[in-house]
Structure formats: C-alpha cells, structure tokens
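Case study 2.
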Amino acid sequence: MKSLRIIIVMIEAPLPFGDASARWLYVLLKGLIERGHQVTAFASCSNPSDIDQAQKLFANCDLRCFLHPERRGLGVKLETLRQPYSYVFSPELKQQLNQELTKPFDILHLEQVWAGWLGLKYKHKAFVNVHFLHSIDRGLPQPQLWLAAQAESRILKAYPHLITLSDRLAQAIHKIAPKSHIDILPLGIDLSLYPFIESKPISDQLTVGLIGSFSWTPTYAAAERLITKLWQPIKKQFPNAKLLMVGRSAKSALAKFEDIPDLEIHENVADAMPYFHQLDVMVYAPLVGSGMKVKVMESFALGIPVVTAPDGVEGLPALDQVHCGVCLEDDDLIKRTIEILSNPHIAKQYRQAARQMLEVTCSPEPVLDKLEQIYQRLLIYKEDKEKC
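Prediction:
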C-alpha cells in the first residue's frame, strides 16, 4: 500500500504494558510507522509518567501527548452536557489537532468513541474505532449511563464509517447507526512481548486467579462471582489451593472479601507479569462486558489456561474445550476449572491451542493488513464524495 498521511487521536498513551487500550495503541502506532505511513498522533493522558514513557518509545515519531485538563468552573459543566466526556481533551490538544487537520491528510483515525467529538467536521475522511459500549455494559450509575448512551448514539450516527472489535458490538452499533458502514477489526497484540510458558514449575500449591482493572464494572463483577459462587467448590476439591486477585483498585474494590482464607489481593502493581506466572488457571467470568478482554488475551499469549464466560472471549474465535473453558453457568465454570487443575494434558492442550489462535488472529501483521484494507476502502469512499 502507498504511504498515507494519517492523523490518529487516542485516549491513552501508546505503551506496550500500559492500560488495556494502550497496548493496542502501541501496536497500531509502531506498525503504521514501520509500514512507511506518515503518522501524527495525539494522545490524551491521565498519567504524566505515561507521557514520558511513550515519548521515549516514539522519539522519532510525531507523537503529541497531553494531560487531561483540570475540570473547573461552569463552562466545563456546560461542555460536559453539550459533548459528554469530551473533557479529557485539553484545549492545547484540540488547537494543535485542528491545525493539522487544515493541512492535507488521507485518514483521520479516532480511537474510542469519545474521540469522535473531535472529527465531526471531517467525518467523510474519518472513522471511529469502538472498543466497547456503555449502553451494553451498564456499568455507570444513572443518570451518567443515560448521558453516556445518548452521547454514544450521537457520535456513532454522525460517522459514515465505523470500526469495532466483534460481531456483537457491530450488531449493537448497527441498531444505533443503521446507515453507517461497520468493519470488524480485532485488537492487535505484540506477541513478542509475551514469551510462551512451555511448562510451569511444579508447586505444592495450586493458584486460581483473576488479573484486571477492578475499577471496571465487568471485572469487579467477575471477581465477585469467582469469590462468592465459584471458589468454594473449587477449594473443596483442592484444599491447598489459593485465590489470587491482582490489578488496579483490587484492594479497595474487594475490601469486603479480605478476610476470606487463602485469598491474596495485590493492588496497582508495577508489573503484572510475575502474577501471571503464578497462575495455574485464570477464571474470568463476567456477567456482562462488551469488547475484547486484554487480560484474557495476555493469558492466552503467555500460556495460562483460561476459564471464562462467552463475554470473556468476545472478538476471538475461541472454542470451549479447545482453546479454553467457555461456559455460562456456575456449575460448568467450576467443572472446567477443576478439569484443568486435575489434568495437565487438558491444560497443555488449551495453552497451545490458545496461543496458536492468537498468532493467527491478533498478531500485528494480520491485524494491520486488515486495517490497511479498511483505509483503502475509506479512501475510495472519500474520492467518490469529492466527485459528487
């Protein structure tokens, strides 16, 4: 494909071990640059240290990072009502972005729904990549959920072209924006950063766990389900097993469970990798939660067997009893977990099949190949609009 002039707007800094979306953004920006495209990227960041890390990683790229602005005054409240969640974009980011958009460019690539506020004047040269929908997850309190759902609807209806991660999200978006063309593109993951664990050292104590961001409602719900519904039957079969919870806000979110025997909680760890290596099985069974689950993908990449609900493997061609355990009901989730812990052969089968599936589906090459095809279709659409 010929070199394109691409402008990207992100709501995270692109980092290989940052938040869930940050890992995809790292793959995206790195891959487009390596393929010879001329990229200017704008990232809105909540953490100053993320800015330093990202700008060192992409020192030879036009990556511009901006901290979230302070939210003060009546004007901010009015802006929140007019364009909900646009507050994450600073005036400096908007000013510099608008300057770039007055120059010639081929594609405006907007990552996540709220970035859609910034491209409305250029919607025929742009698309929004939708990672999840609040209207499905329902993790916000009222009236915030109503406000978020209305804002999602306004943005999605405005863009003729949209990208999302799964058939489920595509169907939900189509109901909101039936006139928009929707492409499906899975999140890419840099598998070179995840050495496959060929064999886990034998331990006297089996470890069942969940790693994620516990400030996100689906992860908290999955943790609560594991602790209150699944753990005791598993523990009965393996009396020496322990339960491990690791991630953002884990201790504060799970404070009411801290006295449970054999439950170990680690919050806001600098590096989750050592905790992944402790796991004999990752059990992530949310009741609801749209989008691809990066911690499940990372488990697959490393070779950690996974038991999950269908939402846990959304966007992946993962099959029950082939790549992992995929079940809806508590009894079945317990059964799959016990099978993995009891049978090293089953665990090995899942580990190898899941890693191979990721290599085919989510490694950078196939994902970026598909993205360039989407770019090409958008360019054709843009040319047709300009002729009219």
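The chain has a mean pLDDT of 93.
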